[in-house]
Amino acid sequence: MSFTLRSGTSALVISMPHVGTGIPEPLRADYVPRALAVEDTDWHIDRLYAFAAELGASVLQPRYSRYVIDLNRPPDDAPMYPGASNTELCPTHFFNGDKLYLPGREPGAAEKARRRELFWQPYHDALRAELGRVKAIHGHVLLWEAHSIRSRIPWLFEGALPGLNFGTADGASADPSLARAIEGVCAANPAVSYVVNGRFKGGYITRHYGAPQQGVHAVQLEMCQSLYMEEEPPFAYDERKAGEIQPWIERLVQESLAACGRVHGK
Q1: Structure-model confidence comparison of residues 168 and 85, the more confident one
Q2: What is the pTM of this model?
């Protein structure tokens, strides 16, 4: 199985599309040796969101690395952020712009189609089905896209990112009250910077599945890894930092879920 799904009891579905670290054995020889350390992983997100079980959340996460296929990119590989550096459906570069593959070993059209069928499609089939199941029970659903990234990546953005980067596709993927709830929580913790719909407005999953008029509200949180871990190898989890930020992440999810319920009279 290329993913794991733990179905929950609440109206919350958490997707972690970049937490996978596996690279299938037949593909490993195509990459430069450095790629096998999968440095651009959303490290430890599953650990940081351990509170999800207590919230009754459904949690979906892949087995394989984004270096194999990026589950948060559209199947036609259209750029998510026109005019900026973008990673592809089957990435060919590290986040610093270096090449992932040995010369002449990049995936061609047939290989990209194969990976899309084997890895991308099953994840999205599972996500779509779980959103439908949860909505049928509760009448609405909050899809929370859990991501993390190094705070400084010049190839992707200038300077340092705010600590917490929320995306609702410029308001199209979730009712505006969710963004207001998020801002209210963030205002109570001024030590951590944040932005709503800044550099990261939400990837394919947020934009594709978010349909607030149909009761599906999608929010992406791209958080700086400096808030909970070491940003350099070996990318260790920092218990002290994580212990400080984790309650705030849980509160953000809880308040967004409550706002979602109020929109639908719950």
Answers
A1: 168
A2: 0.96
